[in-house]
Amino acid sequence: MIPGFDISHYQDLNTTTRKVDFSLAIEQGAKFVIVRTSGNVTKDEDFDDYWRDASGKLLRGSYHFFEYRNGIMKSVVEQVEAYKKFLGDDIGELPQAMDFERPNNQWPELPNRDVCLSWIYDFIRRLKKPLLYTNLDTILHKLWPIPDWLKEIPLWVAQYGVLKPRNDGWNTWTFWQFTSTGNGPKWGAESLGVDLDYFNGTEADLMALAGKPVVTKDLTISSEDYAKLAETVDQLYTAVSKVLLPISNTMLQIVDNIKE
Question: Can you spell out the DSSP letters for 119-167?
Answer without folding.
Answer: HHHHHHTTSSSEEEEEEHHHIIIIIPSPPHHHHTS-EEEE--S-SS---
